């Protein structure tokens, strides 16, 4: 069964409206990274303020993801398990 045939909704059914984020900044910061566009250009296009700081955090995460591509599935699993343990300790 594929996703297209498993839906019980009619094609004309109204779709739920996505929730709006409290701030557009995290989404725009992600777009800066994804589109490889300057912060100033994207801020001008979106007619909003966007800080370099918010983009810097995204670049760090993007670098981590890029480096993780070299890990095996077992190594990634161990990292995920350790991250979950660390998160549980903080709670």
Task: Supply the number of structural domains.
Answer: 1
Cα-to-Cα separation, first versus last residue: 40 Å
SS summary, helix count? 5
Oligomer: single chain
Q: Nutshell version of this structure?
A:
Residues 1-15 have a biased composition (Polar residues). The chain has 91 residues and is mostly helical.
Task: Explain what this protein looks like in three dimensions.
With 91 residues, this protein is an all-alpha fold. The protein has 5 helices and no strands. The chain has helices at residues 3-6, 25-35, 39-46, 52-68, 73-90. Helix 2 (25-35) crosses helix 3 (39-46) and helix 2 crosses helix 4. The longest helix is centred in the C-terminal third of the chain and has 18 residues, at 73-90. The protein is elongated and about 45 Å long.
List keywords for this structure.
single chain, 91 residues, 64% helix, disordered N terminus
Protein topology:
Layout: H1 3-6, H2 25-35, H3 39-46, H4 52-68, H5 73-90
């Amino acid at each position: 069964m594929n996703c297209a045939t498993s839906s019980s909704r009619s094609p004309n059914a109204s779709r739920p409206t996505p929730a709006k984020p409290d701030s557009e900044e995290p989404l725009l910061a992600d777009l800066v990274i994804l589109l490889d566009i300057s912060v100033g250009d994207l801020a001008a296009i979106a007619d909003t303020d966007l800080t370099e700081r918010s983009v810097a955090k995204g670049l760090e995460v993007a670098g981590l993801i890029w480096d993780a591509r070299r890990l095996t599935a077992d190594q990634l699993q161990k990292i995920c398990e350790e991250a979950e343990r660390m998160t549980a300790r903080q709670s």
